[in-house]
Amino acid sequence: MRKWIALGLILLLAAGLMASAAAQTLTLVISPSAPTPTPLPNAPSPAPTPTSKQDASIPAPRQKLTRDQLSSYYRGALFIGDSITTQLKGYIRSLQKEAPDFFPDVKFQTAQSYFLYTASRKGLQSGTANLKLHGVAMPMYRILEEMRPPKALILLGVNDYIGTQVEKGVGYCRRILELTAQYAPGTEIIFESLTPVTASFCRKKDYRTMWDEYNAALKAMCEETNTHYIDIATPLKDGEGYLDTAYSNDGKYHLNAGGLDLWIQALLDFAQAQYDLGLWTPEET
Amino acid sequence: MKKRWIALLMLLSLLLSGCRTGGGQEKALLPLEDAVGKAVSDREDLIAYTGEDLSDLTGILPQDYTEAVFLVGSDTLSGREVIAVRAKDENALKAAAEALKAYLSGRMQETRNYLPDAYKLQSEARVETKNLTAALFIGPNAAEETRAFLTGE
Fold first, then answer.
1. Is residue A13 part of a domain?
2. Which of A57, A88, B2, B139 has its CA at 20 to 30 Å from residue A277's CA atom?
3. Is the ipTM above a cut-off of 0.85?
4. How near does any CA of chain B get to the CA of A24, in Å?
5. For chain A, how far is it from start to end, CA to CA, in angstroms?
6. Domain range spanning residue A191?
């Protein structure tokens, strides 16, 4: 009997020591191997709001898809932008901590103070921010050529004050479409509207109307070229058309979590509209 | 009989504890996330970027490290960042340190004349190395955090 008790003690001791050793090697933030996905939240999405160029022809919704299903529309997509899209990146990455398959495999190419003008050029711009791939600065078209994402969503123009030069801005977007068709023909470009600016940002000059004019011109160009356009500005506006300060974190044009939620919802609504039109089917229904 | 069992127990304990610490020759490193977490006071406010983000932004590739941590301030505008890399070997460490210096320089170009507070933090930040670990802490207490972190490396 005593022999068995002693043997039990030995086994317990051995198991305890081994578990303690194993615990030291399991917690990594980044390891070369991929993390194990965890179950996703499956809440149904609210009814879609009009966002795309096909808004007028949207038939009655077929079925409300879940947020997970809708976000799969963007699987592997590349979001390109400036500090505003960098905020979206941080927010989506934090959501993915709980739900790794929300916006599955999306990638981001952003640089603080990145210009729409820079994105439309074939050469690197000196003295200003450029995008980087594998640590190397590259023009945007080269990044698309290297990465070949199925979709590239672009939100740029705030740093250019592009609302003050609408025609030029739309010209830059046309150039981006041309470069993409030439160097990454499999990539579908989706332009996102400029996000609005607050009333206090417009104290000296009313950028609000300029931003609206640019968005209208961009939308018209997208309709003409059969390019998708997602309006993320409207949900963020207050009654007077400025960025609602409830959604701003700097009182100018950057967004807080509430604003980023509305942006994400606009993206999901767009996916729902594509589904309603029969243009896309989610991976799992 | 009893003495024999006690002796056996002691022998087994010694053997197992030897396995756990690599024969008692090397100091066991904390997992990198824990080590960074101990060095910073705002871990809850930092977002974890992925290995792909690290590779895209710095050029440091997964095959060159055993562990890496890339944390960014949740508003992404303050300039707050923590990058720590345990390189695979000496060459990878040198390359990682150079990549982090180039990354810091690029970040400063992005924020200069645009986000002055972030630029100030970045201009005070330094890439430091110890053993096979490279670290870039950007933040108001970056120097102290770097020191605290590298002490355990």
1. no
2. A88
3. no
4. 6
5. 60
6. 50-276
